[in-house]
Design a protein that fits this description.
Subcellular location: Cytoplasm
Order of helices and strands: EHEEHHEHEEHHEHEHHHHHEHEEHEEH
CATH class of the largest domain: Alpha Beta
Distance between the termini: 81 Å
CATH superfamily of the largest domain: Reverse transcriptase/Diguanylate cyclase domain
Strand content: 15-25%
Number of domains: 4
Structural class: alpha+beta
Radius of gyration: 26 Å
Subunit structure: Monomer.
Protein name: DNA polymerase IV
Number of strands: 13
Organism: Herbiconiux flava
Enzyme class: transferase
């Protein structure tokens, strides 16, 4: 199993496309850091850090505006190399994927040899550095790629899996975030080996049934998951860093409209629909919040924008009190567009024409052929014939 992960992806694309930036600290973003080159990371700059703090840590950094189209094109070029290497590719994000290469020994050599050629092709054909972890399981391969960054290759042989994993900090486990790590540290558990020494029931009691079982299994090297080549994204999203200056309602609505318009186009381009709209906010104190609403499956920009605006309107009092540094939208519970029933070609804002069309449909196909959505799944008694009024 290979886990291939492009290094400092956004910043690396900028350095690739502008030779004068190579070797210099590069920060993508303005008010908030979206990505940082390793030269900037060495000075303490991190993703999601405020732009002012990043400038204080790295005064000589070069700030560049994000170019999402360039990053998307670079990702497609790299994934084409992945799929030319093996048909068993599971993309995790725009810049990382799992590749199953165990069946390529006779055709392409050992997994390590495949990984060496893969890294060279990405460097030559896409102009980017990539780190690759090679291991028996997906989890270990992902940990290996993280350990060998930047621009590295690490092979974890089955015979030395415990030797490799047990001394690592618990933060290396897939699923351990800041909150879980803090909880484990309070219990005196700082390494993977210490977590592995616990009984599974103890881990479940300390961390919750699902999380405890999952993390305990990983700590004991149990990860039977195969590469899933049929996996489709369950959500899509986009966000806009706003910096720290106050934003008017008109500005926020403009940013929201731009985001929703872009995401709705992506839905339609992929023949997808969504059921849930999620508004993501980061306030002036950098605390995060989400608001969501579920609707009937749709890919219509107007519907999605209306829901997003309602979510934003509900959050405006909190924004006014705390300020806002980031706004984003995610569309989740994605499905296929062909699962939608066909729509009538009606201008739904033309009420007179709508009434005429509905009357014509009922005259031809019966009074029950069309009804208001509000009547769906309601008490059948509501559909009883109406009595004539007394004259």
């Amino acid at each position: 199993m290979l886990h291939a992960d492009l290094d400092a992806f956004y910043a690396s694309v900028e350095q690739r496309d502008a030779p004068e930036l190579r070797g210099r600290p590069v920060i993508v973003g303005g008010g908030v850091v979206l990505a940082a080159s390793y030269e900037a990371k060495a000075r303490g700059v991190r993703t999601a850090m405020g732009g002012r703090q990043a400038r204080e840590l790295c005064p000589d950094a070069v700030f560049v505006h994000p170019r999402m189209e360039a990053y998307s094109a670079a990702s497609k070029a790299v994934f084409a190399i992945f799929r030319d290497t093996t048909p068993l590719v599971e993309g995790l994000s725009i810049d990382e994927a799992f590749l199953e290469v165990g069946g390529l020994r006779r055709l392409a050599g050992s997994p390590e040899q495949v990984a060496v050629r893969l890294r060279e092709r990405v460097r030559v054909e896409a102009g980017l550095a990539i780190s690759v972890g090679v291991a028996r399981t997906k989890f270990l391969a992902k940990v290996a790629s993280a350990v060998c960054k930047p621009d590295g290759l690490l092979v974890v042989e089955p015979a030395r899996e415990r030797e490799f994993l047990m001394p690592l900090p618990v933060e290396r486990l897939w699923g351990v975030g800041a909150v879980t790590a803090e909880k484990l540290h309070r219990l005196g558990i700082t390494t993977v080996g210490q977590l592995a020494e616990l009984e599974e029931a103890t881990a479940e009691r300390l961390l919750g049934r699902a999380a405890g079982a999952h993390l305990h299994a990983l700590a004991r090297l149990r990860d039977p998951r195969p590469v899933d080549t049929t996996r489709r994204r369950s959500s899509i999203g986009s966000q806009r860093a706003l910096g720290t200056k106050p934003r008017s309602d008109e500005e926020l609505d403009l940013f929201l409209t731009q985001i929703v318009d872009r995401l709705a186009r992506r839905l339609r381009d992929g023949d997808r629909v969504c059921r849930t709209v999620v508004l993501r906010l980061r306030f002036g104190d950098y605390a995060k919040a989400t608001r969501s609403r579920t609707v009937r499956p749709t890919d219509r920009t107007s519907v999605l924008l209306e829901v997003a605006r309602e979510l934003l309107a509900a959050a405006r009092p909190e924004i006014g009190a705390r300020g806002i540094t980031l706004i984003g939208i995610s569309l989740s519970q994605l499905g296929r567009a062909d699962s939608l029933p066909p729509e009538l070609p009606i201008d739904w804002n033309d009420q007179a024409r709508l009434d005429t069309v509905l009357d014509a449909v009922r005259d031809r196909f019966g009074a029950a052929s069309v009804s208001r959505a509000v009547q769906l799944d309601r008490d059948p008694g509501l559909d009883a014939p109406l009595l004539p009024e007394h004259e």
